[in-house]
Amino acid sequence: MILPTESLARQSRHLAMAAPQFQSVELYSNGVDPSGKPSPSSSSSRTSSRFSPSASSFLYNARVAIALAPSALFLLSLGGIPVVATLSLGLIVAYFLDSFNLKHAAFFLVWFSLVASQIALLFSGGLAAFPSWPLFLFAFGLCSLAIFLIGVWASIQFRWMILENASVVTALERLLFACTPIVASIVWTWAAVASVGMNHAAYYLMCFSCLFYWLFSIPRRSSFRSRLEGHFHGGEIPDDALILGQLEGCIHTLVLLFLPVLFRVGSHHSVTFSSATFICDLLLLFFVPFLFQLYASTNGALWWITKNVNELHRIRIVNGAIGLVVVVICLEVRVVFHSFGRYLHVPPPLNYILVTVAMLGSAAGAGSFAVGMIGDAFSSAAFSVLAVLVGIAGAIVVGFPFL
Description:
Layout: H1 5-29, H2 40-51, H3 61-79, H4 81-99, H5 103-123, H6 133-155, H7 159-164, H8 166-196, H9 201-216, H10 246-267, H11 276-296, H12 309-339, H13 350-370, H14 377-397
Helix pairs in contact: 3-6, 3-8, 4-5, 5-6, 6-8, 8-9, 9-10, 9-11, 10-11, 11-12, 12-13, 13-14
């Protein structure tokens, strides 16, 4: 069919008018104005993407800050004005260098500032309080290691470092997680001893070790490896994707269990095994972290031993029962009958039996609930009966009147 001449001319004029409109829409979709200027939406989107968190950034700044920020403040207070002035001046200059996009210069200046602050700490007299050279060298080495970890933490904050040296930042992340719980627990204990004295220093170390074990030793995925669950078979994270390996898990376990005990023996060597109270202290310093680790195994803390769920459950039940009995007996000797014996209104030996029933029953119920053994009707009924028995025993031993 042949179209009339007027309709052909009208259609050609319509196509000629429509063509620039399609070109304009296409240019705007690419972020370019028809006049050649970038569109406002594209510039704002580029700005927001430039300052938005990157997928390759370090994910665990909060937990590292919990450990290292108070440690840094303690070292600054230990060094005084020379350390504060040296570090502040270096970081200010590094900030300006980074603002002028001199990234490598800023990186090296951060490390130079940390080294200079360590030298200033050495000559400031903050470590002069140690009477012997071995203690002085140990304190200086501990401060150096803490400052080194702060430098490692600062290094993995540089975006160019992450993009250009992926294997290096992965190793630095592993080094940070491997050393921070040990160093931070010792520095925190040092600060606590400087504040409140040496009498219960081993218990401070035990508490800090448990805290940092929970923050750093629970298996976590690396910030700089693939985060897509689809890359893992069945959604299970392989060992290579974790920050720490089996060696670090074993070392952290040994430090958690034995460092408070060794510190107690070393700091009170003159009265070692001189009384039942001291022996109970040693048992508590070992078995309380031991029970804590068994609870942490519900979150994967013992993955380096075995990944069999049934084996881990048996380990928790058997070792947890032994640990609970030891801890309850030691608490009775060390705390209950030593400090609160005057408040027990039942004569011996019945008071020992009732206190043991109350404390051991409470510990058994709490432990069963923590490891997830109370889930069906029978276990709930047994837990209720145990709670009633514990309440009755506790009421009798403290002299609660019964009508």
